[in-house]
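debug: dumping io for the single-chain case to check the tokenizer round-trip. Nothing else runs in this session.
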Amino acid sequence: MKIAKEGLVFILPSLLLGLLLLLPGWWVGSIFFLVLSAAFTFFFRDPKRIPPSGQNFIVSPADGQVIKIYDFSDHPEVQGPGKVISIFLSLLDVHFTRSPIAAEVKKVDYQPGKFFPAYREEASSQNESNSLLLGSAAGNIFLKQMVGVAARRIKCYVKPGDRVELGQKIGLMYFGSRVDLYLPNSIEIKVRLNQKVKGGLTIIGEIKNESKN
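debug: decoded output
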């Protein structure tokens, strides 16, 4: 399986220490670091994803569990009313973030912050985050990546002006995190609370009628 290159700085040192500790016969330490290297390899896995065909589909931006679905009436970047879908990523989930729709990246906004558990309410407004504004056939869509207690870094692969395809990788969050997706009312929600979703695969919405950006 393909591994994210960002994971090599975690995988290789652990693997090397595990192998070196075999030489003097320090089995406990060796096993610990070899298992740690395997855990990092699992975390940074990069499975191939082929998004569903269809111009009106909105796919999940991340692997994880839908922990919140709620209405919003006003947002500075998205014409309301609409709905917010919050997806929590555990340490067992693939941590790449993917574009939920074919779009143009209009804004990328990184904000330093705190490290509350990603599932808590404070995380949305106070945690370290990276936000993307996507201009699409459904109107503006706002995607917010947030790190939690364990996660301490967000990698973004895109910049303003880039065109992204449905399901394209746009970022990576390290070690447990959350994604909030703000969708306008032109999109009909297709997921339910507590549902497990797969980034780039699970259809979470469908455009009811096209609107101009």
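debug: round-trip ok. The chain has two domains: 5-43, 57-207.
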